[in-house]
TrEMBL record, chains A, B:
Catalytic reaction annotation: 3-(methylsulfanyl)propanoyl-CoA + oxidized [electron-transfer flavoprotein] + H(+) = 3-(methylsulfanyl)acryloyl-CoA + reduced [electron-transfer flavoprotein]
SUPFAM superfamilies: Acyl-CoA dehydrogenase C-terminal domain-like, Acyl-CoA dehydrogenase NM domain-like
UniProt-recorded name of the protein: 3-methylmercaptopropionyl-CoA dehydrogenase
Organism of provenance: Pseudomonas pohangensis
Functional note: Involved in the assimilation of dimethylsulphoniopropionate (DMSP), an important compound in the fixation of carbon in marine phytoplankton, by mediating the conversion of 3-(methylthio)propanoyl-CoA (MMPA-CoA) to 3-(methylthio)acryloyl-CoA (MTA-CoA).
Length: 607, 607
């Protein structure tokens, strides 16, 4: 059975050697406490929780699923006890301010913790994960009294939170939403309507659930400009903030899903539930999306999680399972057959998984530094800096969410493939990873939505290509000094220089074309996203290879020499066998819009 | 809920207009009965069975799964009645000889029927599907008496069959198998051992189950040269062929699988079970693989089935579900939002599904003509011709099985993606398709095994590239006359000419390299397979576009003009947006073997 081991070696390589997190933390106003010792303690502590408490519940949670009866949701056996341990360890509060009972550490530490938790047990991680969005929203938009009422117990994990957006008729297109909120004499609102797909919307882990809800006032304008934001607790609070009577929000059902079955996905019926407005009226959608970048990066992590877990499952199997002889000659002549690992195509699959897991991790840990600076600016009240960092992060977000989750699904499927037919049966845990991974390209904005956000909003409209120029500027500054060197690093650097030019060329061509063809953005967006992802991941692989080479030449770093050599090798693999996929996305992104749009919709299938 | 409609229009376009099946049948010794009227009756009859009987059981069969208790397997509600209708309709016998009660029609008619059945309900189709391999094996290797005993009731569908190869320690590497067969005084054998992953190994649909089993004689040489083939009935037969006592073969368990849950995958324990040898001793593996090409094409169909079904689910959803406004301006201003179909990226997904389903269908229907000729030669006793056609089919087989099932999985996942979050919940049936489709790249030889078969056995060792030259010769003969013409067909033809040259170049380069690097074949095989698939599918799309253009120019064919226009459009889409993927596979196939092999296996992950 699959056994999770936190990839601490790789995490520390990125933190200490590639991305210089110690210096990064020293530069942050709220980074003083994030000393190397503190970071180590958090990594080790989270690893223990994940390996010993959460991972053992992953398969059983999937097999049992959540139970629903008469509005009550019961999580699978062991979840309640595990959540209690999570709360007792103070894990929810790592990156939240001390005034609300958190540890006040930079947001990135929450990312590292979430990655380990998500790999060990993604379904479990959804429950505290949804609270993060709720807490961030309250911190930004709640009154002082509301903060005092909700935040300490949310930050402690004693209560959990949700984000209630989707309704049956709309997910992406929230302008269609119908839930109504009517003002009451006491300043509260009565909410009526039904929300679907609410993760952690109802469960038995926490004493109270705080719902952040999008709804319309009676006189609100139609569409997205008539949406307001409300906080609706499952149990209303008494004046002393103790739990009062049950609010009129009830779980009508939970979904039967392909995967993440231990995560309750609720239909919530608001039948005149009492709520309180957050922020300004009719500005709810903006408020809800304030932390969209971080929320989406929280979902991007899932790609890394499932690539990592599937790799951890497939690698030992490939080392142990014996099948056929290597075409290049017997490798283990005293055995009945050679291990799978000797077959080049099995290595192709394993290296693809490794490249995705470790490359995706580097991308996310790098983006987490921007997120740290963004939250620091917010806490320091520096709105201008906050917006600048939010905008910088905004270029990474759709690439990370869209690209890494697509590749995470590929990696999960490759893990099954290494197992052959055994990958398809439940016993090995490999098929669960593929089912769990499948949601990641769908929720928190589908890949198609990320692609439109990237090419339409961020690259073309938002910056006329500047964000690509900025990022490739960074790539070129890294690549140029290596460009003339022999060996793998020189090759990678030259490839990155070409890709940087090509990426800007692609952007410019799409900018020009989109001015005269309004279908161009939508027609090219997916392939532009994937192209961008492959080039960006290439940069982060070269960065890792460069640091590994440097440390090897200098006689070593924290890890054994083999670790650094494998980094260089995997980077070579990536450039030789995965980066070429950028070529097909380049061609497809420049294909005519007619090739998509010319067919009459009624002709797509004539039976 | 998903509703299956047999794609008769597309099937008839391929049969009557593109591939000229009427002439093909006239040329076959056993084709006289396959008149257009007979073919129509079979297509219509199978469509009705599939739409009305099998499709309605697809979701319920998945939800219920098979039951196992004390060695007895019960199929989901309705399966027994549906199977009875299948038997009553004589559907098992369509392509089997009249002397055994079949209709004696060409094998391709079984392919068309199987495709419809498999799309409607793949799990159900597995039961009679496994019988086909059993029947073919008995027809070739059984004695006259054995044929008389088994074949009439197998051909009628009253009994079903299995193929028992896999054991816990080996699937691909059958040389490792351990099941023993000991000769008895009466000429029978006693089989002892355990087989796993036996599809249709135990169930309640048929009165008897006839197992074809690989096992070793006590004095057999080790490895693949010591394997013999046996027939082992679940119920032994009395002298008059009536059912006798229960044989000592018992179902120990059924697997819990990611998908195809209504198909029972059994562990079979042979505890001194009585069996009878088929063919020569120690030649069992060859005998088992006699019909491997057709069996693998039977699995390739699954890629088409699930691409088709997922497309049939996604298209109406995209026409009905409304989300956002088209970036190119409001399309349905009187509606709350525009339908998904107006968004270019949704069209990209739908057209990819359509291209895979209809392109894969064309590839398989073309290969089925070779299979027809192969079986005709076999029936006519012309061994030389039989082997020539088998060898011709052998080039198509790994491409069809490997490439089409990989793309079928992609198409199934795209169908979920069109649904957004709704694709992930069970109600719409889309996630079941993705789960069911996932097995296709694993069983009947993984994609990696198909790739080795193609590049190693068929292309390099078997023909020094001749089979690529032969196939591209056909492509060039088709493409050259169109090469100078304007419009989409000329463009496709020129692209195919380039790809044909490139394919041969790739083959030659790999041939030269493999002479000095024994890792080359394994390192390039997957990407060579995918490259070959994309080019081959390109040819079959151009073929369809050419016929559609010709019919449009001539004022029409069987279908409405819009049908033909959509064919041309989809071919253009394929060449513009899917065929470019061949570029990345070309690059990866030529990447150094070191990029896969240089890393020490112990260094792939150092924690």
């Amino acid at each position: 059975m699959l056994k999770y081991q936190a990839p601490l070696r790789d995490m520390r390589f990125l933190l200490n050697e590639v991305l210089d997190y110690p210096a990064h933390y020293r530069s942050l106003p709220n980074g003083a406490d994030a000393t190397p010792e503190m970071v180590d303690a958090i990594l080790d502590g989270a690893a223990t929780l994940c390996e010993e408490v959460l991972a053992p519940l992953n398969a059983s949670g999937d097999a049992e699923g959540c139970h629903f009866k008469d509005g009550v949701v019961t999580t699978p056996a062991g979840f309640k006890e595990a959540y209690a341990q999570f709360v007792a360890g103070g894990w929810q509060g790592v990156s939240f301010p001390e005034e609300f009972g958190g540890q006040g550490l930079p947001m990135s530490l929450n990312v590292f913790k979430s990655e380990m938790m998500g790999t060990a047990n993604w379904s479990f991680t959804m429950y505290p994960g949804l609270s993060v969005g709720c807490i961030n929203t309250l911190m930004q938009y709640a009154s002082a009294e509301q903060k005092a009422a909700y935040l300490p117990r949310l930050v402690a994990g004693q209560w959990s939170g949700t984000m209630c957006l989707t309704e049956a008729q709309c997910g992406t297109d929230l302008g269609q939403l119908k839930t109504r909120a009517e003002a009451q004499a006491d300043g509260s609102y009565r909410l009526t309507g039904s929300k679907i797909f609410i993760s952690a919307g109802e469960h038995d882990l926490a004493e109270n659930i705080i719902h952040i809800v999008l709804a319309r006032l009676p006189d609100a304008p139609a569409g997205t400009r008539g949406i307001s934001l409300f906080v609706v607790p499952k149990f209303k609070l008494n004046a002393d903030h103790s739990l009062g009577e049950r609010n009129a929000v009830n779980c009508g059902a939970i979904e039967h899903k392909m995967g993440i079955r231990a995560s309750a996905t609720a239909t919530l019926n608001f039948d005149g539930a009492t709520g309180y407005m957050l922020g300004e009226q009719n500005k709810g959608l903006e408020a809800m999306f304030t932390f969209m970048n971080t929320a989406r990066i929280g979902t991007a992590i899932q790609g890394v999680c499932h690539a990592e877990l599937s790799f951890q499952g497939a690698l030992p199997y490939a080392l142990e399972r014996r099948s056929m002889r290597a075409l290049s000659g017997k490798k283990e002549p005293d055995q009945v057959a050679d291990a799978l690992i000797w077959h080049p195509d099995v290595r192709r699959m394993l290296l693809t998984q490794k490249a995705i897991a470790e490359g995706g991790r580097a991308m996310i840990y790098s983006a987490a530094q921007i997120a740290d600076k963004m939250f620091s600016s917010l806490l320091a009240g520096d709105q201008l800096k906050y917006e600048a960092y939010d905008s910088e992060l905004g270029f990474f977000t759709p690439i990370l969410k869209g690209f890494i989750t697509e590749l995470g699904l590929e990696a999960a499927n490759l893990g099954m493939q290494v197992f052959g037919g055994h990958g398809y049966i439940q016993d090995h845990g490999m098929e669960q990873i593929a089912r769990d991974a499948r949601i990641a390209t769908l929720y928190e904005g589908t890949t198609g939505i990320q692609a439109l956000d990237l090419l339409g909003r961020k690259v073309l409209l938002g910056s006329k290509g500047k964000c690509v120029r900025d990022f490739t500027g960074t790539v070129l500054r890294f690549a140029r000094p290596h460009a003339l060197s022999r060996g793998p690093l020189g090759k990678m650097a030259r490839s990155l220089i070409c890709r940087s030019l090509q990426w800007n060329l692609l952007t410019t061509r799409l900018l020009l074309r989109s001015a005269r063809d309004r279908e161009q953005v939508g027609a090219a967006s997916f392939d532009f996203l994937m192209y961008s992802g492959y080039v960006m991941m290439g940069y982060f692989w070269a960065l890792q290879a460069a640091k590994a080479s440097q440390l090897l030449a200098a006689g070593g770093g924290e890890a054994p020499a083999e670790f650094y050599q494998a980094k260089i090798d995997t980077a070579e693999f990536y450039f030789a066998r995965l980066l070429p996929r950028a070529n097909s996305h380049y061609a497809a992104a420049l294909a005519s819009t007619a090739s998509l749009m010319q067919t009459d919709k009624a002709s797509l299938r004539i039976n």
